[in-house]
Amino acid sequence: MRHTSRSAVLALIFSLALAAAAAAQAPTVYRISFPAPEHHYAEVEVTFTSAPATLEARMSRSSPGRYALHEYAKNVFEVRAVDGKGKPLTITRPDPYQWNVTGHDGTVRITYKIFGNHVDGTYLAIDSTHAHMNIPATFMWARGFDMREVRVAFVQPPGSNWKVATQLFPTDDPWTFTAPNFQYFMDSPTEMSDFGVRSFKVTNPDGKEFTIISAVHHDGADSALDEYVAGTEKIVREQGAIFGEFPEFDGGTYTFLGDYVPWGGGDGMEHRNSTVVAAPVSFKTPGAARGALGTVSHEFFHAWNVERIRPKSLEPFNFEEANMSGEMWIAEGFTQYYGGLVMGRAGLRPAEQTMLSLANSALGVATHPARQFRSAVQMSQYAPFSDAARSVDETNASYSFISYYTYGSALALAIDLELRARSNGKLSLDDYIQLMWKVHGKPGGAQPGLVAKPYTQDDARDRLAEVSGDAAFARDFFTRFVEGREAPDYARLLGPAGIVVRKRSAGAPWTGLQMDRQNAATVGSLVAFGTPAFDAGLEKGDVIASIDGVAFTALAAALKDRKPGDKLAIEFRRPSGLVVKSTLTLGEDSALQAAPIESTGGTLTPEMKAFRESWLGSKVKK
Ligand SMILES: [Zn+2]
Asked: Omega before 180 cis (within 30°)?
């Protein structure tokens, strides 16, 4: 939670005045070219005018939507600086991410080369088929230039058929684009390639029309792209129906920047008026285009949730540090929930599969050992260490961390089912997210790229109180399930939908051990707190010699004909060679499983049928 003191408010007013003055100043001008794309590098030139005595040029350390540090400065080489007359300037390096330039005449022109060969939503990828640019990964910027306009010229490689797809604003020159400020520029990934293009229009209740563009770099036939865009259109209209309107996309367009090449990566990355959606597939493969739609559904939902319904902890985004948010369980978790739900509502996934996958995912959270250690808020705060983060040393995240995507989706399911049950089907999560939109998203901001009314955790709780009409319920839910580590009672919540919750392996013995795939006697994964194996003192790397006096071959064989509660003598050897004798007391597998009531011999009542239809059926008015 952030506190705003009076002096902070005055500082803010002062900095806004400075920003207004800067806005009237000349834009920051970029030019990027690709002399030899096959060697995966670009040449960038950036000109800063009215520069301070010491110009502090930087590469970003972070990128919106992917919360680890990425250290884009590592790929920069051959940095030079000249002034307005072309005089070479001295560069000093105060830290690994910054280039200080002094002794100039008010103008500083920096040139550098940058390497990039990683196709996804976070990095830079250049090869003979495309330049796939995440802006923080590609362009150097300078401190204090936040409110300057940005102009970028993209240079087409000689002999290529590359075009430009981006949410940056077009100019009279087809190769030059603008952004009104630094935040918008950083948020505007750009694809240059010989991509295929399709578009369709959507209209808001007030008559405003927007163009939804798909610019897709792929290797398949036109029919594959048509199938992909037809699915995209169903998703887009279904999500519009949840909110009752589309955001006012800046410039009137929203663009899917698709990258489906077998040598690429799989990813989806949300932006304000566009998204990068990528998968390492060939559109020549039957079903590949359709298989890519799950990510489309997730990412488009972000056009509301995170891009405009934005946590205060992420606004404005800090490109100099990792950004931490306790609200990722809403930002990503609700998006995860709706990404899947909308696939069902749009008829792109069977209804039964949709409801069972949402339910089983939530049951996985309810029985996960990590809830002993971290709440949904704390899982959210772990994002900088889990989202594309790399560590040299081992972590215990395997049992102490649950993705806030999954955790948040589980909480979204609980709120959805709870609101439906409490209101006799009149209210649902759709009403909650719509209220979040009306209060926090729709008011917009002073300029594209800025959000005026970001929300805090308390705001999210208060909106739940308003939509449910029950402040005590909202307070209780947040205290126990969001800030606390309790799990909602999914068996009760899923009942009205005709979903039965049962033990996946009732009566079967359970140790909590995961054995190594190659060496069946070696413990293959860290042993989670609260498991029989943990209590017996077993840990990853230990080699089991015998159980109950019988030489050990495989876990399944050792547990055959055993039952929960059995106490077994166990002998194992530590990596150090130490031999340990202990007792393994078998438990019962707590894993839960959701099943449609009609598949368990029960009766699907008309009420349950209606509940499912209201939950999983299309909301688009035909
Ligand atoms: Zn997401």
From this structure: no
Ligand 1 centroid, distance to 546 Cα (angstroms): 46
Closest CA relative to residue 135, chosen from 146, 121, 153 = 121
Q: Where in the chain is the domain with CATH 2.30.42.10?
A: 509-588
Domain 324-496: give its CATH architecture. Orthogonal Bundle (1.10)
Ligand 1 center–CA 490 separation, angstroms: 24
CB-count burial class (<10 Å; 0-12, 13-18, 19+) for 321: exposed
Considering only CA atoms, give the Rg of the chain. Answer: 27
Q: What is the DSSP letter of 387?
A: S
Q: How far is the CA of 272 from the centre of ligand 1 (A)?
A: 13
CA of 267 to the centre of ligand 1 (A): 10
Q: Which two tokens stand for residue 212?
A: 């939804």
Span from the CA of 22 to the centroid of ligand 1 (angstroms): 34
CA 42 to centroid of ligand 1, rounded, Å: 29
**CA quadruple 505, 510, 512, 518: dihedral sign:** negative
Each residue of 421-434: pLDDT tens digit? 999 999 999 999 99
* Beta-ladder partners of 58: 98, 141
Asked if residue 301 lies in contact with residue 237, where contact means CB atoms within 8 angstroms, the answer is no
Of 429, 242, 234, 240, which Cα lies nearest the Cα of 346?
Answer: 234
Per-residue model confidence as pLDDT tens digits over 447-497: 999 999 999 999 999 999 999 999 999 999 999 999 999 999 999 999 999
ipTM passes above 0.85 = yes
Of the chain, the percentage scoring pLDDT greater than 90 comes to 94
Residues in the chain: 622
Which residues of the chain does CATH 1.10.390.10 include?
A: 195-303, 324-496
**Separation of alpha carbons 269 and 189, rounded Å:** 9
Residue located via tokens 């230039």: 145
| 388 CA distance to ligand 1 middle (Å) | 13
Q: How many CA atoms lie within 13 A of 496 on its CB side?
A: 19
| Whether the Cβ atoms of residue 228 and residue 292 lie closer than 8 Å to each other | yes
CATH 2.60.40.3650 in the chain: give the residue spans. 22-193
Q: How far is the CA of 295 from the centre of ligand 1 (A)?
A: 9
| CATH fold of 22-193 | Immunoglobulin-like (2.60.40)
Gap between the Cα atoms of 194 and 279, Å rounded = 17
Distance 181 CA to ligand 1 centre (A): 24
Fold of 195-303: Neutral Protease; domain 2 (1.10.390)
Q: Are 268 and 299 in contact (CB under 8 A)?
A: yes
CA–centroid distance, residue 566 to ligand 1 (Å): 44
Helices 351-366 and 606-616: angle between axes, nearest 10 degrees: 90
CA of 159 to the centre of ligand 1 (A): 37
Residue 80 predicted with pLDDT over 80: yes
Closest CA to 271 of 137, 429, 436, 135: 135
CATH superfamily for 509-588 is PDZ domain (2.30.42.10)
Token pair, residue 289, equals 């285009």
CA distance 374 to 382: 9
Distance 382 CA to ligand 1 centre (A): 15
